[in-house]
Amino acid sequence: MRHNIYILTFFWLLISLIPLSATSAETTLPPEDNSGSILCQPGVYLEMPDDCAPLGPSETLTNMALLGLEFPLRPLQTSQPPLALNTLPYQYYRINPDTGTAFYPTLDAAIAKTGPVRVIPPGSILYVIYSFRLDTPNQGTYFQLPSGYYMPGDGSTAQAASSFQGLEIHTTPKKPFGWILSPADVRAQPNYLEINPPTQKLPRFTVVQVYSRQNIEGNDWTLIGPDEWIESRMLAVIEPNPTPPEGVTNGRWVDVNLAQQTLAVYDHNQMVFATLVATGVKPYYTRPGLFQIYKKTELETMSGAFEANRSDYYYLENVPWTMYFDKARALHGAYWRTLFGYNASHGCVNLSVGDSHWLYNWATEGDWVWVHDPSGETPTDPSFYGDGGA
Question: Does residue 249 sit in the same domain as residue 222?
């Protein structure tokens, strides 16, 4: 009997020690790895974190950051120039380019079309200024010019100047930005698939920022906001670059981008203005290079022709805010243009009236003008270029 008690006591002691042994073993095991067991706080995680899973809002923010989209989106630090810069104290009249016109010493001579004192031949762009419009009961419309001469109406029509103006820049942008050139469809993805229809249409001259670019099946696309893609050809872009071109030593220059048809102004190595322009159309290219403004004049009459048959003849009175920088090539206002952002001139850099006025007020003779073509399509051989024109 006593022998049995000893055996039971031994087993009881053995059983009572088992939990202690198990508990001791558990305390010596390595701690459990909690990586990925919880979501990361909303933020950008360009590297995989060790203590959380970058999913949900964090994943969205990270994908946006990889495309250059910051949250919240930072607006451009810009403002509109004064509208008064658009005003010109002149009345312009567009002469019929197919017929030209003549100036006469008196109204009677103009009605009879006899004894002209001056003839303006047919051409491509013909504009004069006038003082008064005269509507006769039976003989049509005539215009008296500042010289006192008279010109028959000949069915010509006056054309209002474009009211487009660029932007005054308060802080040099970190990213490219630009203007919509023609009404542009916005899509959630960079493609034309039926399952990706336009979500909105942006009007001409809308200002947008550029966050990413992709080429999809031969079409270039630009990301202008979260899930907002437009085809790149609808956009003229400013590429901010406050590093002065080689040769510029005073921190002041005008940057003319021929590929994008844009202009940016830098002062103390900071962008202060940006806009659209119209430079030389083939074969009247605006010559690339680094130049200096050598003459400023508030008003200029420009005329000329390059074709042998003079079919491209132009005559433009009172061209405002002209800044010559390369022979006859100049930065100047173009009251006869309604669109900017496209090649159109005989070599000059055309701006809207308001933009040319802003630039004229800022510029001094001796300031630098850097004309360049990132696409490389504009000829660079100096022997290719003549004097240029409007």
Answer: no
Residue 390 lies in a domain: no
Give residue 260's domain range.
Answer: 240-384
pLDDT in tens, 18-53: 444 444 444 455 554 544 458 777 766 677 777 787
Please check whether residue 223 lies inside any domain of the structure: yes
- Do 64 and 189 fall within a single domain? yes
Q: How many domains does the chain have?
A: 3
What confidence tens digit (pLDDT) does each residue in 316-369 have? 999 999 999 999 999 999 999 989 999 999 999 999 999 999 999 999 999 999
Say if 136 falls within a structural domain: yes
Q: Report the candidate in 177, 186, 172, 185 with the shortest Cα–Cα distance to residue 236.
A: 177
Burial of 48 (0-12, 13-18, 19+ CB in 10 A): exposed
Asked if 349 contacts 329 with a C-beta cutoff of 8 angstroms, the reply is yes
Please state the φ and ψ torsions of residue 202, each to the nearest 5 degrees: -95, 135
SS3 256: strand
224 and 285 share a domain?
no
57: confidence class by pLDDT, cuts 50, 70, 90: low
The torsion angle over the Cα atoms of residues 286, 287, 293 and 299, rounded to 10 degrees, is -30
Question: Exposure of 192 by Cβ count < 10 A (0-12 exposed, 13-18 middle, 19+ buried)?
Answer: middle
Distance CA 325, CA 364 (A): 11
* Whether residues 219 and 206 fall in one domain: yes
Cβ neighbour number for residue 262 with a 10 Å cutoff? 24
Tell me which of 239, 271, 293 is where a domain ends.
239
Strand, coil or helix: 225: strand
Question: Do 99 and 227 belong together in one domain?
Answer: no
